[in-house]
Amino acid sequence: MVAQLNSPDSVTLPAFLAACRGQPVPHTPIWIMRQAGRYLPEYRELRSKVDFVALTRTPELAAEVTMQPLRRFELDAAILFSDIMTPLQGMGVALEFAPGPIVRDPIRTDAQIDALPPLVPARDVPFTLESIRLVRANVPRGAPLIGFAGGAFTLFCYLVCGRPSKEFGAARSFLYAHPESAERLLDKLADAMAVYLRAQAEAGAQALMIFESWAGLLGPREFQRFALRAVKRTVAGLKGVGVPLIYYANNGGAVLDQVATLDVDVAGIDWRTPLSAARRTLGPNKAVQGNLDPAALFAEPAELQRHVDAVLLEAGPGPGHIFNLGHGIWQETNPDAVARLVDYVHETTARAGQVAGAR
Ligand code: CP3
After folding, report:
1. Would you put residue 242 in left (φ > 0), alpha (ψ -120 to 50) or beta?
2. In sequence order, what are the beta bridge partners of 78?
3. Which of 83, 114, 168, 337 could form a disulfide with 157 if both were Cys (CB 3.0 to 4.6 A apart)?
4. Which of 259, 114, 125, 138 lies closest to 198 in space, CA to CA?
5. Is 9 among the catalytic positions?
6. Residue-wise over 261-274: b if at least 16 C-beta within 10 A, else e?
7. Beta-carbon contacts of residue 202 (< 8 Å; ≥ 6 apart)
């Protein structure tokens, strides 16, 4: 990546994509995990008329919700409005959202694992691919679009437990009780997500993010055997895809040395690990994304700025930082705080005279 510092691309790439590749940027780019969603009045308004699954499966509506935060804030990237469970639903797993995913028949047997079909994107998730095309054609300021998928282990947690949970006891005990069956299910999910993510890139997604939201449930040995092995399989399946890959392990401070071995461009960092420490562990060849505590958006404006300054200081002056929260934005957040955050990150990081007009 260092070799690309002076590449001519750096003049024309949007700041978000340049930062993903560790190239210089006119300002630190920012987007926000779960930026399309319930903290926005315009989302709640639409949601009062249309249920969540219909929103994810109607391309015009999914594209509209994807673009809502981009109209309100000067965000540097859009993330597709969908859910990590949407492709599984497309593959025939019966589930509903209330509001978190509830799986009708949690997967607990080898027969159920064998019955899980491979993902065929054009058949199972055509609406997602069409949403991507619509966003690309209409997104404000030509902002780059991020496609995403759940990490296999995070999907495994929902499929085996059947519902959101703090500890995901049924999923974690399954790892110890039936490790080989767990690996088989994880492999199937990992392969499906590789196919899914590649289809998103082919439809126009300009970066791909893998959310390992429940990484923090595992000790380092189990993370390595189950979560890391599976995500390596997904990443291997994405070889040559041509867009930056972002891997986010929530509460993953204890496994960052393992994340460092993944062949991805960017590591998403939660708020518990200082970005300077993350950079030391990850080395110079990965950009970092994060990591303001979502709770900091409840601070007074001047206090919020001090917390943003602290994140920027930890990230350091070098290239390869994408500002974000350390996890998804809370639905109780005041959108005005988001506006202040986005503007402040842009103002304080604008580098006079550098790559003017690239934003
Ligand atoms: O980031 C975005 O703005 C894009 C949309 C997006 C959603 N889910 C929409 C959604 C993304 C990227 C996700 C990913 C997702 N879904 C993750 C990984 C990211 C993370 O936060 O860790 C996880 C663990 C899920 C599972 C899930 N789906 C949960 C726990 C919930 C419950 C409520 C919530 O908002 O957190 C959902 C439902 C869901 N997914 C909603 C939205 C906007 C709320 C549904 C509603 O409107 O009722």
Report:
1. left
2. 145
3. 168
4. 125
5. no
6. ebebbbbbbbbebb
7. none
* Nearest alpha-carbon partner for 29 in 312, 327, 265: 312
CB contact burial 295-315 (16+ within 10 A = b; e otherwise): ebbeeeeeebbebbeebbebb
**Distance in angstroms (rounded) separating the CA atoms of residues 298 and 294:** 8
Q: Which amino acid is at 19?
A: A
Catalytic entry in 21, 57, 124, 158? 158
For residue 80, which atom of ligand 1 is closest to its CA? 4
**Residue 353: pLDDT band by 50, 70, 90 thresholds?**
very low
38 catalytic? Reply is: yes
Residue 236 CA to residue 183 CA, distance in Å, equals: 17
Question: Of the listed 76, 83, 124, 191, which one is catalytic?
Answer: 83
0.85 surpassed by pTM: yes
Q: Whose CA is nearest to atom 25 of ligand 1?
A: 84
Q: How confident is the model at residue 5 (pLDDT cuts 50, 70, 90)?
A: very low
Cβ neighbours for 33, distance < 8 A, ≥ 6 positions apart:
79, 248, 268, 324, 325, 327, 328, 329
